[in-house]
Specification:
InterPro entries: CBD2, CBM2/CBM3_carb-bd_dom_sf, CBM2_carb-bd_dom_sf, ConA-like_dom_sf, GH11/12, GH12
Protein name: Glycosyl hydrolase
Organism: Actinoplanes utahensis
CATH architecture of the largest domain: Sandwich
Family: Belongs to the glycosyl hydrolase 12 (cellulase H) family.
Largest sheet: 14 strands, mixed
CATH superfamily of the largest domain: Glycoside hydrolase family 11/12, catalytic domain
CATH class of the largest domain: Mainly Beta
Number of domains: 2
Keywords: Carbohydrate metabolism, Glycosidase, Hydrolase, Polysaccharide degradation, Signal
Order of helices and strands: EEEEEEEEEEEEEEEEEHEEEEEEEEHE
Strand content: over 45%
Distance between the termini: 42 Å
Number of helices: 2
CATH topology of the largest domain: Jelly Rolls
Number of strands: 26
Helix content: under 10%
Length: about 425
């Protein structure tokens, strides 16, 4: 059995648009020996924008704790951020490490992101500080042009996927887990759904963040970690049979196998905004309402090369009844059905539980919001579940409040590296 190092990948939301790279810090600084900072505006619309900031250690000594500072030059307002503790006072913005990402090794980097609001102008900051030391840079580029006033949310560029982890050959002080030996999914007796006949494959869409709306669902070509590797991803939807969606995705990704490149998924409900009206989706629903969330999912994974990946549900929860694009979740619950290449979740193992006749290892972590991952101990390619069984388990442990609202149910595949294809022959979700 191989031990694996849990390495938390970073949240990166990049669409290849303008970036501002600033230079090396004073090498004599005690707090930070040398670093560079990259500020990117990957998406901007009529009243808001998404910003990404990367801090890179270009020196020879590890950073042990960091605090980033910069000033908005055009009156921009911070709406919310991730992968750090964000605050704004006047025009000044600070971001403090989230704990799990406090250490930056030489040559390493951390990425943080935020949603903001702008009016009149959205100039990129030209000066940054890390632990009080000023960075100066060669100049900045302008953010992309705003979308039309009809745009209502940045759903395509928001941090869509859990920041999961992958195996490494050595053990560390973090929790260890058993490496999955096989990459081929195997059905179990608890997966009772029956696959439907193969649908005629729909047209592929290889545009980053393409959204294919079909009934209550939409398929998201989510490539939120693309900046950490090279490659591409395409999605398609084959239509509905009743309320059951057939869809698929194929991918080729190379690069750092500790960082997720993409999470192509079927989305029901919120995803940093709404592609389908809330009333149509049946979400959000408060946990205290006691409504069931039953789902059937039949899929096939075809690995062209060895992949570091998982196939998983991703549930998002809020502390409000009507979240929009600017409202980050408070909790995220993943249910892994399949994994290969040593992929593992954020956080540490807390328990082993049996739900719906299958056994799962339960992990708990935090990336700016709480993340709970139920990792199935044996792979399957078919499942029929009541997802409230998983949230009920967390409520019983005192980790999740029944006052929270389930705002989104997603189902897809997180890819770190490799080439392959996921075909979903039948996928459905019923609320209540």
């Amino acid at each position: 059995m191989l031990a694996k190092r849990i390495v938390v990948p970073l949240s990166v939301l990049t669409l290849g648009s303008a970036a501002a790279v600033v230079g090396v810090l004073n090498a004599d600084a005690a707090a930070v020996a040398a670093c560079s900072v990259t500020y990117t505006v990957p998406s901007q619309w009529n009243t808001g924008f998404t910003g990404d900031v990367k801090i890179k250690n270009t020196g020879g000594t590890s950073f042990d704790g960091w605090r980033l500072g910069f000033t908005f030059p055009s009156g921009q307002k911070l709406a919310g951020g991730w992968n750090g503790t964000w605050a704004q006072s006047g025009a000044a913005v600070t971001v403090t490490d989230a704990g799990w990402n406090r250490t930056i090794a030489p040559g390493g980097q951390v990425a943080v992101g935020f949603n903001g609001a702008w009016s009149g102008g959205n100039a990129i900051p030209t000066g940054f500080t890390v632990n009080g030391v000023t960075c100066g840079g060669p100049g900045v580029a302008s953010p992309p042009a705003a979308t039309s006033p009809a745009a209502t949310s940045p759903a395509a560029t928001s941090p869509a996927a859990t920041r999961t982890a992958t195996a490494a050959p050595t053990a560390t002080k973090t929790a260890t887990a058993t490496k999955t030996a096989t990459a081929t999914p195997t059905a179990t007796r608890t997966a009772t759904a029956t696959p439907t006949a193969t649908a005629v494959k729909g047209a592929e869409n290889c545009t980053d963040y393409a959204a294919l709306v079909r009934g209550r669902f939409w398929v998201n070509n989510n490539v939120w970690g693309k900046a950490d590797g090279t490659g591409s991803q395409c999605v398609w939807e084959n239509g509905l049979s009743g309320d059951s969606l057939s869809w698929g995705t194929r991918w080729t990704w190379a690069g750092d196998n500790t960082k997720v490149k993409s999470y192509a998924s079927s989305v029901l409900g919120w995803h940093w905004g709404w592609k389908v009206p809330s009333a149509t989706t049946g979400l959000p629903v408060q946990l205290s309402a006691g409504k069931s969330v039953t789902t059937t999912w039949n899929f096939k994974v075809t690995q062209t090369t060895g992949n570091v990946m998982n196939v998983a549900y991703d549930l998002w929860l809020h502390d409000m009844a009507a979240p929009d694009w600017q409202n980050n979740p408070t909790d995220e619950v993943m249910v892994w059905l399949y994994k290969s290449g040593g992929a593992g979740p954020v956080g540490t193992k807390q328990a082993t539980v049996t739900i719906g006749g299958a056994t799962y290892d339960l992990y708990k972590g935090n990336i700016g919001w709480e993340v709970y991952s139920f990792v199935r101990t044996s792979n399957t390619s078919a499942a029929t579940l009541d997802l409230t069984d998983f949230t009920d388990d967390l409520v019983a442990r005192g980790w999740l409040a029944k006052s929270k609202y389930l705002s989104s149910v997603q189902a897809g595949t997180e890819i770190f590296t490799g080439s392959g294809q996921l075909d979903t022959t039948a996928y459905s979700v019923k609320i209540g």
